[in-house]
Every structure is written in structure tokens, then in C-alpha cells.
Description:
This protein is α+β, with helices and mostly antiparallel strands. It has helices at residues 2-21, 34-55, 59-77, 85-103, 111-133, 139-147, 155-171, 175-179, 184-207, 252-260, and strands at 220-230, 236-247, 270-273, 298-303. The radius of gyration is 28 Å and the shape is elongated.
Amino acid sequence: TGGSWGTGIATGALVGCFFNGIEYYKPFFSYPFMAIVLFGLPAIFAQALVFSFAWDGSQRKSWLASKFTMAIGLLIFTFFIRGSYVLFVTILFAAIAWIPRRFIFSRYNNSCSKIFMLLFDILIGELIPLLISLPLIQSDFLIPITGRSGPALNPNIAIGILMAACVAVLALNGLSTYLVSLKKIHLIIALLFSFFVLNPIIVVGFVGKVPYQTKTPMRLRIVNTDRTWYNSDRSINRSDAGYWFHPVDPDTSFYLPEFAKTVPELSEIVEIEANLNTCSDLFCSQPLVWPSGKSLKKTPWLPKAKRLPTFIKDSDQLRIHSFLVLDRTLN
């Protein structure tokens, strides 16, 4: 069971690598729930495939193995992780769904009882734990937090691992054990179809290259900057001016050429070193020192010809429109 869970997580990471390979970064950014489908569905098929090979297609052995592993995981994680109660919820409702299946539905071997047993298992053993655990795998929470991690993080792989891990745990209730009864070739076809056909259709046909929308804009700080380098005798060595970009979202540098099609000036952007551990200049010649400096390797820089004005040409006058006196007399 641990191997099947690990395979599901690895499948989620591979899906993220696949999206990186076809240069579709963060396709789930504007549609967070889509991450569960893109990464979770292949993880479920991969998990069921491992079960099928390990237990030779036996639903009973797969079900018992998954519950035993989750019980061991609950015993261990209880001492370290507060959220380990999710494992207890899945085990509890899986057992509740298993009792009528074992003592009632097993007496009837017709198609109606099998269908009813399947629906009962999905409703009690799958749906209820999913609804209880949904706040913990809330993609509307994970994706925005991951999206503010800076350019050093790969969001496709990070979200792929998180979503696949969560969905794989919930699928251990019964969905994976039901899929075990399918032929191995059918599971392989379903896995490959979800990986190489369904996901590209969703991403390429529905999202497109740029995942940002009005409700989900790119977070980018742009600072109008003058830079001056001084020698040891305080004489000026060199100076320049430009717009310094501090990317908050991952993979920002990939989208700047796309934006240059609308704003031609962005085509002149160059990347400057921002690695505080290796650069030679003080603060890597950045205008601001950020706590996330270690996560920044390169930052975009747009040169400009004119420097910032050294004085304000236009004057302004302050006028008092109203005057209010507050009575603060103490009783």
C-alpha cells in the first residue's frame, strides 16, 4: 500500500513535469479545483494499477492492505501531525461502509445488489470522508499560497505532489480497490489516456498558455530605479536607470515574452543575477533587500535612458478645508 501511495504521488509529479515540458505553467491557477482532476485522476489509476499487480486483482486483499497501512500511518502520524485525524475519518467511514457489505450484501449475488453495494460504498466510504477532508485539500487555499512563493518554486510539480498525495489517501477508502477488479491493460490505458490525452485537451483547449484572468492577476512588483556604483574614494564608477521587476509568481520570466506582444518595450528585458550567495555586488545591485532573497536567482531588469528627477518641478499648496476640535475632558 505504501508503494501504491508513493506511485500515486510520483505520478502527480510526472504530470507536473509533463506540463513543464509542453510549456504550460500553472494551468490550474484560475481554476483551482482543476488541479484535483489534472493530478488526482492519474494518481488514482496509477495507485490502482500497483494494487492490481501486488494483489493479483483481489478487491478483498487490496481493501485490507490499504486499511492496515492507513491504521499504521494513523498510529505513527498522531504523534507528529495534527491533521492525522483525516486518516481516522477515512478508516472509520470505510469500516461503516464495509459492515453492511460483509454481512448483508454478500448474501445476494445478483447484479442489483452489487450495484447497490457499490453506490453505498461510494456514498458512505468515499463521499463523506471527501467532504470532511475537503477543507484540508482546499485548492483555493493551496494554489494562491504556492503562487506567491517566487520564481524558485516549480508550481506544477509542487501542486502535483500535494494534490496527488491527498487524493491518493482518499481513494484508498474504496475507489482504488474497486478499480483493482479491472484488467491491468484497461488500467494502463486509462492511466495513459488521462496523462497524455485528457489532461492536454483540458489544458490546451480550455486554459491556454497564459493562465491569468481579471480575478486571478499576476502578482509583480515593478520599481522605477536609479542605480549608482561608487569607488572606494566615493567617486562614481558607473550608473544606470531602469525598471526592476520583483516576481512574486513562479515562472514569471516565461510570460514576459508573451506580454511583450502587447507591450513591445518588454522585449528589451534582461535578467540580472539576484543570488545573494554568489553575486559580487552589494545586495546583488538590487534596489531593495527582500527576506526571500535566497529564493531569487535572477530578476528581470528593463533598462531606460532617462533617470529619475532629482527635484520636484511643480509646486503644490495645502489648504485646510475644515477644522475640528475634540473635547477630551476627563470626568
